[in-house]
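Q: What does the assembly look like in three dimensions?
Context provided by user:
Components: two
Sequences:
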Amino acid sequence: MTAPSPNTERWRSVVVFLTMAATVAAAIVAGLQADAGIRSQVANRESQVYALLASGEIFRQGIRGDYDLGTLADLAQEMQDSLSLEITGLEQEAAGDLDSAALARQRAAILRARVERAQALSFFYTDPAHAPGEPDALPNLEGYVEDSAAEANRLVKLQNEQADAYQRWSRKGDSYVAVLALLAIALFLFGLAQAASVRTRRTFTVFGSVVLAVSILWTLSILID
Amino acid sequence: MATNNNLPRDGTEGESVSQERAQSEAVPERVGGGGRTEGLIAAAMAIVLIATAVASWRSSDLGSRAGDAERLGMIQSIQQQDFLNLDWQLAYQEAGNAQRHLLAEAEVRAMEISGDRGLEAQAANQRKYVLANLALLAEPLSSDPAYARADGSLDIAQRFADLQAQNADLAALDPEGAFIQAEYYQSQQRSYFVGAVLLALSLFWLGLAEITRGKARITGLVMGVLVFLFGLAWIAGVEVLWALARWVEA
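A: Here is the predicted structure of the complete assembly.
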């Protein structure tokens, strides 16, 4: 019996070693892929929760705006009506129609009482940041609109950030799946190398090694990205 | 001993393979190359593979549990938001009713002090019939002093907080708790992957032991077993730590 050719033994050992290395690389990439999957899942969930919160905030602001602006509109109309009745009373008094003038003033006084109560109820007259600085000035409506949208905008911004994170991790996860497919090809080539004759073994080993090297480099580039 | 998986393709290759096999079988047994060591390596590889399969199942189970907890959290988040929307709607609806009542009351008061008999009579009837009905609609914002601010406005936020506190269905929801639970499972799953990599490394060393001879084979076997034991200890530690964490959280 003769001893096996050292060259044949060396190639066989190289193939087994590369197969093991590809197995370990596949385990690591599978771990990274699972991690990317978990991170994308969490980001996706956060994105959905923020979208829900943003829609709830927009709904709340809609109801609140309806109440606040409705109160202000009614108040402004009654204020105008009251002023109009005051002017009417003055004109009727000047014309000598004292009964009509008294009636107009009474109606104006009633409306004024409503206006004063509505001002106490209105956010635009009780909140110092939005209340008019002078008696005849208008409340700070622009500031109100900006403040109203601030929370919803903040939530939408957070939602967008999480959606971007989801896309990023999802892309990474997809890339890891592609790397796993390459590693499967490498393992297939190494398996063929083990089963093939001496001459073809080298070819399969070289191709498998190239695929393994590309897989490792790709994995590193995904990690750095 | 050396393994030979070569398969004959044609006459020439078959001849080459037979030659290789004959050469391989002729390799003399050396240190660490005996049948006993071979058997140990094979048994260790089988155990590692079974442990890897069990760890994979558990990891998948954890992923599934995390998914279930997340789904529950999302469902509860939607239900919670639904309740919040309804409570805000109710609070502002009540505020609108209270506002109508308070404005009508101010109007009646102005009529009462107008000095005009007709208006006073009208005010008396409005107080008796209209205000009484409006007051019923305006409950509890216009009657409960807890909702009256010092500046005369209504404390709608307080009413909303009370509506939330009264809602037993809302109190039963805990989406944040479900999300925390999901994150526990996900963290545990991540740590399991480290254990799986350790098991794969153990397989790597055992593979090396399989293809080498002498001291290198013994080293490979010992390293493989040590890494495997470390991997098992890691997985056991993960199980214990996360069980403790969940127990503390509960």
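Follow-up: The helical segments of chain B are 11-25, 35-112, 117-137, 156-166, 168-171, 175-211, 214-249.
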